[in-house]
Amino acid sequence: MRNAMIGSLIATLLAGTAAALPAHPQAEKQALDLAKQAIALRSVRGPGNKTPEVAALYKSALVAGGFKDSDVTITPVDDTAYLIATWPGSDPSLKPIVISGHMDVVEANPKDWTRDPFTPIVENGYLFGRGATDMKLDGTLAIASLIELKREGYKPKRTIVIEFSGDEETTMKTSGLIASKLSNAELVLNIDGGGGALDEKTGKPLYFTWSGAEKAYADFELTVTNPGGHSSEPRADNAIDQLAAGLVRIGEYHFKPELNDLTRQELAQESKYEAPEIGAAMRAFVANPEDKQAIATLTANPATVGRIGTTCVATMINGGHALNALPQRATANINCRIFPGHPFPQVMAELQRVAAEPAIQFKDVTEGSVPTPPSPLRPDLVQAIETSIHTVYPGVPVFPSQSSGASDSMWFRHVGVPSYGASPVFIKESEDFSHGLNERTPISNIPPAITYYLSLIPALSK
Boundaries of each Peptidase M20 dimerisation domain copy (predicted)? Predict the structure, then answer.
């Protein structure tokens, strides 16, 4: 036990926290062991998808940890599956809280990686492997924490549900099914969102954000068709030329910058940790969303342009049918990340106006995405998160954020359930390789994350 406590304290110090954390050696070991087993299962959509095996692994751990077998269900869907586990509370009149995650990962080609992406390894204080960051370690930290609460004899008043979707990285079919089943929930803690930033030089925690909204994902197909003809007889109505002209106009266009309650706080707080020019522009934009210089600075920076409004960009193009023929058809895809509050038809109409080319036909071809409003700034939720973070990272700033990408929170908000990204994992911006090569996460996150969950989950379920 003494060695476990020393090991836990060392990990805590490596994480840069000033708090001496209580030891939870069984939970800490289980979280890492389960994450390594899950990473070894290639849970990628398509042939050989092992997401159902990840679900079986998680169910086995939950049942062994005290959940009734009948309270942990795995539902097959196409080549994947989803899991819902219920810990009944003592007061059935209270709506449940939901802990939400996903089991699938983005494809990874072993030839491109330094280490095999589906062979987990701990090296130099990092867990390497596809899903180490997004989000198998996050998932097993929550599972191990619930089991630890059972081990300690905790009895929730409010029912606790933990669920994992099986296709969050692709179609989100299971995500929508889960949200429909759990549409009676009080709120959702999405452990695939939010998180903390580490200082690039010292490795100490800079700040923690919880996510209360996300931009909507949308795809619009642009098509130009005409009869074509022989390439030796060019005409003004060339399908490729017409499409290209519209794409250039769209590429040069910027949607009106805007703020909401979440991004106003996020930009104001995060400006303190940015390069001076970017930080000053953030503060100026918060003070005046029509500040032209601030907008120009933030728009020119790829890391901030998506934070101040809707963005749309051409991602695919195809045209023509023969080298010696005028094109009969040319198509392109415009991918948009839409600021909350704007319906898809409104954005598509704005793109049509900007393209200014009557020959281009626009079509919404979005799959698996719907626009959703921000979740409310609930004082009870905000207080619980702040208290739990400060239990392990005293004094670290905590503020809300808005995600630029879609997550399972979208489907809960779509059915009227507020959802909040609340992962306790801290990472350097330069070391966030989610969806990329050589994905890894510091294992020093494990002890403080367990302690965080042992504070947060009871605070919301007592």
Answer: 214-359
